[in-house]
Write a structure and sequence with these properties.
- The protein is globular, with a radius of gyration of 17 Å.
- It is an alpha/beta fold.
- It has one domain: Metal-dependent hydrolases (TIM Barrel, Alpha-Beta Barrel), CATH 3.20.20.
- Strands 1-2-3-4-5-6-7-8 form an eight-stranded parallel β-sheet.
């Protein structure tokens, strides 16, 4: 498909260490664009470096909830990354209370700081939330966040509505293709077509029929196909709609 845009991937992951350059070269022929998300200082720097080399790649720089202990003392370095034209968002940032590690209070402080950075640099935010919905909504409302996307959405249409009412976008992964998925397809049918994006979250969330394998941005085509089924349209049209949404969201008109 000509208009494939993966709005969230992690090509810095060790799963790509053996063949990262080859994967990127192959993507250049298949993808209209990808948004490579950082999760800490090193991964953000790698994403930015590759975005400077490849015209179809743009990046987001930020600290993932469980990496936010690395933010302290590196705020200036992160802000320097945000000043680059190839950096189109602050992310992946958010709250994740599912696993033990960084305390909720520390996560909330780091999220608030990065939301303020995003506002200062006029950048959207890419948001991760797991088992922390109430705190996430409270912080987003307190900071009056409207320019953001909830990535890897797996919740109900009622939860989606709370985010949509704030002005946010919703992004879906290969989860849409899982037989066990119930809430996400219902939410995808509910979200307005101009507020939805698709992603792989690669190397994770590999769609059917490749579950168990390493995911790559090219497999966002399978997410587009499933979304097309939900929307009663062909995959190409669904891909084009989500491509246009990503272009507007990341302000990439005439760039990819």
């Amino acid at each position: 498909m000509r208009y494939l845009f993966d709005s969230h991937c992690h090509l810095d992951d060790s799963a790509f260490d053996a063949d990262r350059d080859a994967v990127i070269a192959e993507l250049a022929d298949k993808m209209a664009g990808i948004l490579w998300c950082g999760t800490d200082l090193a991964s953000s720097a790698m994403a930015l470096s590759h975005a400077k080399k490849h015209g179809f790649i743009r990046c987001a720089c930020g600290f993932y909830p469980h990496q936010t202990d690395g933010l302290s003392g590196h705020e200036t370095e992160l802000e320097a990354m945000l000043n680059n034209k190839e950096c189109r968002a602050v992310g992946e940032i958010g709250l994740d209370y599912h696993y033990e590690g960084i305390s909720p209070e520390a996560q909330k402080r780091a999220l608030a700081l990065q939301l303020e950075m995003a506002k200062k640099h006029d950048l959207p935010v890419i948001l991760h939330e797991r088992d922390a919905l109430c705190d996430m909504l409270d912080i987003l409302k307190a900071h009056k966040v409207q320019n953001g996307v909830i990535h890897c959405f797996s919740g109900s249409k009622e939860t989606a509505k709370q985010y949509l009412d704030m002005g946010l976008h919703i992004s879906f992964t290969g989860l849409l293709t899982f037989k066990s998925a119930r809430l996400a397809p219902e939410a995808a049918a509910y979200v307005p077509k101009d507020r939805i994006m698709i992603e792989t979250d690669s190397p994770y969330m590999t769609p059917v029929p490749f579950r168990g394998e390493r995911n790559t941005p090219a497999r966002v085509a399978l997410v587009a196909a499933r979304l097309g089924e939900i929307w009663n349209m062909d995959a190409e049209e669904a891909a084009y709609i989500t491509y246009q949404n990503a272009i507007r969201f990341f302000k990439l008109e005439n760039e990819v």
